[in-house]
Amino acid sequence: MSNATHVAKIEETVARQRAFFQTGATRPVAVRVAALKRLKKEIQAREQILLDALQADLHKSHFEGYMCELGLNLDELGYLARHVAEWSRPRRRPTPLAQFKSKSYELAEPYGVVLVMSPWNYPYLLSLDPLFGAVAAGNCVVLKPSAYAPNTSRAMAELIAAVFNPDWVTVIEGGREQNAALLEQRFDYIFFTGSVDVGKMVMEKASRHLTPVTLELGGKSPVIVDRTANIPLTAKRLAFGKLLNAGQTCVAPDYCLVDRKVRDELVEELKKQFGLDIEKRKIAMADIKAYGSYEELLRDDGVDLVYIATPHSHHGEQIEQCVTHGKAVLCEKAFTATAAQAERALALAKEKGVLVTEAIWTRYVPMRRMLDELLASGAIGTPRVLTANLGYTIYDKERIRRPELAGGALLDVGVYVLNFAAM
């Protein structure tokens, strides 16, 4: 399907939803509550299908999928159905003196046609919860799930189609072309969950129509541990928070600020939780900027990983050279390269037993395929393989393969090793 066809289809979808909203069909509270209850019943009926799709995309076990996603979705639906009537009633407010003799009240009203754009890491939770709220408020909704979780995207599209008239709620599947086409439309509200860079683009596009937005963006989550903390319990909770959902949680701990008096104790307790010999698996990491020349960095046998912070036109060549010299590569964000460069570097990574981080390849090689390639090659799990946002992450092959330990996401999988040397 051509880009023009995508755009035309999306324009038609938004126009039809706007016309449907203007009929007032979504406004009656009884209609909204009934829709929420139908949706809850359909999710329960499709629970196995939805969890299977989640496992196919992210290797997330059914237990974790229900605990972290579907269970929370169902709880949210029940809460909304119980309270939407109360929230929709007019509320009396004091009348200003200038409007003496009149009565004032506050009335909650729907925005109109709402766009929900969601990420891949919690595909049900971060797609459906905003959708539930928008429906409860009486809006029409266009849901755009992430293309990086295609099975859950399809499962949600089938779920929504079974419950709603597409003029009320619909799902648009696809990748960047569909995202770009959607952001060119005039919506009445946009709810976006994702990265800061894409969030800036969403806000820029929304500003053309003065569309209000909610941006739920990623960030860094420090942990502060003082001397009064229960260290064994702290370590257990840190490990749980870091490994939950394969580390792909926006509030997962990224680094620790620890009182020196309890630092060593915390390190030992973390080792117990992770069950690995951390000291033998630390890896030297270097930033290109720390060297006089790129060639000098490549000749340094003490460097296991090269960190490239800012994308530029020579990234493809640099990455190939790093991998050729047996060095893993960490890149802060995706960049422009050719599919051929991606394939060559991936082949080299397999040959040398090193890893190039997923962020580089998301535009060219699907994450699941790359993960399978690396697992097959034995690259994941070797001492040289890691990536990190802050600190070190070490990949453990068994943690990725065993569904009860989640896994499947290529960034932040496995054990997060805190770098206390700099403290």
Chain-wise SSE layout:
Layout: H1 3-22, H2 29-45, H3 47-58, H4 62-88, E1 91-93, E2 104-106, E3 113-117, H5 125-136, E4 140-144, H6 150-163, E5 169-171, H7 176-183, E6 189-194, H8 196-207, E7 213-217, E8 222-225, H9 231-243, E9 255-258, H10 260-274, E10 285-287, H11 294-299, E11 305-308, H12 315-324, E12 328-331, H13 339-352, H14 367-377, E13 392-394, H15 397-401, E14 415-417
Parallel strand pairs: 3-4, 3-6, 4-5, 6-7, 8-9, 10-11, 11-12
Antiparallel strand pairs: 1-2, 13-14
Helix pairs in contact: 1-7, 2-4, 2-6, 3-4, 3-6, 4-5, 9-10, 12-13, 13-14
Question: How does this model look, in words?
Answer:
This protein is α/β, with parallel strands linked by helices and 423 residues long. Helices cover 46% and strands 13% of the residues. A 5-stranded parallel beta sheet has the order 5-4-3-6-7, sandwiched between helices. It has a 3-stranded parallel beta sheet with strand order 10-11-12, covered by helices on one side. The relative contact order is 0.09.
Give the uncertain stretches in residue-range form.
Answer: 277-287, 332-337, 357-372, 374-423
Please give the count of helices.
15
Global outline: globular
Please tell me the overall pLDDT: 75
Tell me the distance between the termini.
Answer: 54 Å
Strand percentage: 5-15%
Query: What is the count of β-strands?
Result: 14
Largest sheet: 5 strands, parallel
Derived from helix and strand composition plus strand pairing, the structural class reads alpha/beta
The percentage helix is 40-55%
Instruction: Name the strands of the widest sheet in spatial order.
Output: 5-4-3-6-7
SSE pattern, N- to C-terminal: HHHHEEEHEHEHEHEEHEHEHEHEHHEHE
Oligomeric state of this protein: single chain
Radius of gyration, rounded? 24 Å
